[in-house]
Design goal:
Radius of gyration: 18 Å
Order of helices and strands: HHHHHHHHHHHHH
Largest sheet: none
Helix content: 40-55%
Distance between the termini: 41 Å
Number of helices: 13
């Protein structure tokens, strides 16, 4: 009799399959005040600085600062992260300001910012990490063609669940639980995967990300991040990049 081994992350993915299916039906945008959300993003509020001072004028993040792309992310996830920062369920170890900033906004302000950012979703490719420049600057950069295998099919010999199984095609996201990770900043992806792996970030539903990341080597993390950072949601999936020799 053959033994069947099912990973924790795979079980969680199956349990949340209806949510993944819903991703093709609706993209949550929130019902907050767009004008107030935009004002906070561009001007800040009180002691809270403008979001664009770290995340860039379009909210696309900055590899040099290690900040993530937040524009176009879906509402539920953005709001959850702001609430987790405000209640210290998540600690900002990148710029060391998000906990204070989130606390400085009211509950409605956080809803407004999340609504505004979710409204910036683009129907096409956007500016992505430049892997060649990062490598030239001394950053360890993975190989996208190897990362594609992990994203699409996982690492069967290690029991690594494919990113696609939860986060959708090329990491485009599967609301209301799984965020968009495709076209996320390379440095941010690497840092967060390592934080999931060592447990310093632990606000993932039912420990799903920690279960996956704990099975990933540094090379696995770098490769998966390299593919996700430059991938396209709108191609046949044969993403190519000048950096990738294959």
């Amino acid at each position: 009799m053959k033994r069947v081994i099912v990973s924790t992350a795979a079980v969680l993915m199956a349990a949340m399959l209806p949510s993944i299916v819903m991703a093709s039906v609706a993209w949550p945008k929130g019902d907050g005040d767009l004008a107030n959300g935009k004002k906070i993003f561009t001007e800040g509020k009180g002691s809270v600085p403008a979001c664009n001072s770290c995340h860039g004028p379009e909210g696309l993040g900055d590899d040099n600062m290690g900040t993530p792309r937040i524009s176009g992310q879906f509402y539920n996830f953005l709001l959850k992260q702001l609430e987790d920062f405000a209640t210290d369920k998540r600690t900002d170890t990148t710029m060391f300001v998000m906990n204070t900033n989130a606390k400085g906004l009211s509950e409605q302000d956080r809803k407004d910012v999340a609504t505004y950012l979710a409204s910036l979703r683009k129907h096409g490719d956007t500016k992505v990490s430049n892997l060649e420049e990062l490598k030239a600057a001394g950053q360890v950069v993975g190989l996208p063609h190897k990362g594609k295998s992990l994203v699409e099919w996982g690492g069967n010999e290690k029991g690594i669940t494919a990113c696609k199984s939860c986060h959708g095609y090329n990491g485009m996201g599967a609301p209301p639980v799984f965020p968009m990770i495709g076209q996320q900043r390379y440095v941010y992806l690497v840092n967060q995967l390592k934080k999931w792996r060592d447990g310093s970030r632990a606000n993932d539903p039912k420990g799903a990300m920690r279960a996956v990341a704990q099975k990933m080597s540094d090379d696995d993390i770098n490769n998966a991040a390299a593919y996700l950072a430059i991938t396209s949601f709108y191609s046949s999936g044969n993403t190519r990049h000048a950096y990738d020799p294959h």
